Automatic annotation (TrEMBL):
Gene Ontology biological process terms in this record: phospholipid biosynthetic process
Cited Pfam families: CDP-OH_P_transf
The organism's taxonomic lineage, starting at the top: Bacteria, Pseudomonadati, Bacteroidota, Flavobacteriia, Flavobacteriales
Transmembrane segments: 33-52, 95-113, 204-226, 232-250
Annotated protein name in UniProt: CDP-alcohol phosphatidyltransferase family protein
EC number: 2.7.8.-
Species assigned in the record: Flavobacterium sp. WC2409
Cited PROSITE patterns: CDP_ALCOHOL_P_TRANSF
Amino acid sequence: MSKLAAQDKFFDLSDYGRSPGKLFAKRLKNTRFTPIHVTLLFGLSGLIAVYFIVQNQYYLAGVFIILKSIIDAADGELARLKKRPSYTGRYLDSVFDIFLNFFFLSAICYVSATPFWVALLAFFCIQLQGTLYNYYYVILRNKSIGGDSTSKVFEYKMPKALPGESQKSVAILFEIYTLVYGGFDKIIHTFDSDAYRVKTLPNWFMTFVSIYGLGFQLLIIALMLALDYIEYIAPFFIVYSIFIFILIGIRKRYFRH
């Protein structure tokens, strides 16, 4: 099952890992590997990238950050191929993402002249940017006929476990998810509280929004590391947040319910 109906698919700048991720998932389809195993693998790739940042091996760190993005795309693809969607995988994936983002910025702070408060502000900005992308993307997925609706626009109610997963695992991960993402969700919902009422969002707009997708954010970090621009990474993402207000302004002005 695709995340979006054919007419709602857009050029997603953050989704460059999808094609190699699909190939990887296909190789695992008839094996004992589960989507959770793949999620754990992308977590390991992210931690290796953190290690290389601390060791001042920035090019290798960038390689493993990109690899993390590719593997990140594979877990969802494998779940769809095996027809085993799960809330456990959905929440575990997101929890890993936010902690790895924090580790990336912390490692960058450790090896550079970046003050910790600047790294912390950059982390906040990155998460807020990603939340805006996810907010609009999940709205589109839920409006799309035949699209994937595992993710919800408003994650305030614990879902019932799907076949093959434990309700206890879903409950624990849901609580962690709402704890680490809840504040960012509330901020974005406050900025654009009625976006979920729109009938659809045009493809060109969603392509613009995808500059805030996690894959594109990580691509920028990887490139800046490879070019030895480590001192500029945190300040860049702080300034990059200006597009939050531009995107919300466009949505409110041109795409109303």
